[in-house]
């Protein structure tokens, strides 16, 4: 048996464009993000995936709602475990803001940011739950760049020492015989 999991980063927001740390701030898609989500949705066909999950943050939910229409699934199941990294005091700030407030070495300070390990642990826990909950099914998840990237780095460290996930990019993992494989990474051919 094999479980396939498709990971999608949400469409672009104004804060993405402005270079602001979004974290768990609930920022909606902008017009370009809506267009990206619509293009993404056209990539999928009715019945191609069995179930659709999303982060509970609005930018992911909005992206998932476009995909839901193409897939014909009854509902988008939201789950806070696949939220973006909590950026603590950095939420809403740009790089320039952070340097002005805390200095060039702000990343060495404790600004209340969730750890990379905690984010990866949440992501891996969710994937393991999907394998148990949906054996031999195709699960699609709309989430966030840091959550997806850090999960991949910890799940498949030989393959992903670094990651960058584009808005609405699709990454596909399969779980077979107790092993994870990446079939597709950061694909944006729909844009």
UniProtKB/TrEMBL annotation:
It comes from the Bacteria. Transmembrane segments: none annotated. Pfam families: His_Phos_1. InterPro entries: His_Pase_superF_clade-1 (IPR013078), His_PPase_superfam (IPR029033), Phosphoglycerate_Mutase (IPR051695). Keywords: Hydrolase. This is Histidine phosphatase family protein. The lineage of its organism: Bacteria, Bacillati, Bacillota, Bacilli, Bacillales.
């Amino acid at each position: 048996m094999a479980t396939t999991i498709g990971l999608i980063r949400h469409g672009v927001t104004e804060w993405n464009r402005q270079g602001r740390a979004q974290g768990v701030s609930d920022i909606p898609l902008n017009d370009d993000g809506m267009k990206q989500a619509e293009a993404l949705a056209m990539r999928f066909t009715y019945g191609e995936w069995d179930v659709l999950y999303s982060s509970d943050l609005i930018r992911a939910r909005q992206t998932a709602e476009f995909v839901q229409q193409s897939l014909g699934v009854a509902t988008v199941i939201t789950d806070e475990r696949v939220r973006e990294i909590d950026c603590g005091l950095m939420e809403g700030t740009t790089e320039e803001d952070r340097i002005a407030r805390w200095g060039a070495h702000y990343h060495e300070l404790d600004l209340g940011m969730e750890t990379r390990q905690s984010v990866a642990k949440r992501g891996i826990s969710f994937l393991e739950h999907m394998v148990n909950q949906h054996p031999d099914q195709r699960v699609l998840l709309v989430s966030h760049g840091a959550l997806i990237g850090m999960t991949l780095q910890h799940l498949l460290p030989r393959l992903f020492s670094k990651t960058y996930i584009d808005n609405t990019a699709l990454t596909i993992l399969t779980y077979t015989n107790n092993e994870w494989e990446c079939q597709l990474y950061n694909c944006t051919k729909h844009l």
